[in-house]
Amino acid sequence: MAEGVGAQPQFGRPAPPPQTGWERLSELWRRDERQRYPEETVNIVKSAFTGGVVGWMYGGLPAFYHARKAFIERSHGELFQNRADAVQSAHRAGLRSFIRYGWRWSWRVATFVTIFNMASTGLSVYRNKSTISNYASAGAFTGALFRIHLGLQGLAGGLMFGTAFGIPAGALLMIMQKVAGETLQEKRNRERRELYEQKLAEWQSRLSVTEVLGEMESNAQGGPETERARESRTY
Question: Global pTM?
Answer without folding.
Answer: 0.73
